[in-house]
Amino acid sequence: MKFENSNITGIMRMTDQYIVTDNIDLSKLILSRVVLHPHKKTKGHLHKGQDEVYIFLFGQGYMVVGNETFSVRNGDIILVPDGSFHQVVNGGDTDLVWCSVYNTNNESTTDYKNE
Fold first, then answer.
1. To pair with 52 at 20 to 30 A between CA atoms, which of 94, 105, 107, 111?
2. 5 three-state secondary structure
3. Helix (H) or strand (E) holding 109
């Protein structure tokens, strides 16, 4: 299978904050494409039992992983270890776009930060 960045297909979720498309064609990995709208942020959370890789494709903002904050823009890759809190913030005037890859471990859990 081959996908172009803008043509990842799958299960789509949309809110006023973002558009997420999860491709579930593989049996052990999920590829998600996320479009985070200007001046929005993801809900901070962590996954127990799951590593995650973020590959930023367009725009700029920052990402919190654990106790660290990273500026992010196209070409940046952020590794999120199992159990690490993470959140992406788009402080700019254009969409912030990335792909994330994570395993399909059905025993993993997601805990959201209370905001």
1. 94
2. helix
3. strand 109-112
Closest by CA position to 49, among listed 102, 1, 115, 99: 102
CA 93 distance to own-chain centroid: 19
Structure tokens at 53: 């890789």
Token readout for 4 is: 């172009």
Which string of b and e fits 64-75 if b means at least 16 CB within 10 Å?
bbeeeeeebeee
Residue pair 39/15 in contact by the 8 Å Cβ criterion: no
The residue ranking higher by pLDDT, 80 or 110, is 80
Q: How far apart are CA 72 and CA 70, in angstroms?
A: 6
Handedness of CA 75, 84, 70, 72 (dihedral sign): positive
pLDDT over 90, % of the chain: 70
Q: What's the order of all strands across the beta sheet hosting 77-80? A: 11-14, 18-23, 29-36, 96-103, 52-58, 77-80
pTM higher than the cut 0.85: yes
Q: How many angstroms separate the CA atoms of 64 and 45, rounded?
A: 10
Strand pairing report for 18-23 and 29-36: antiparallel
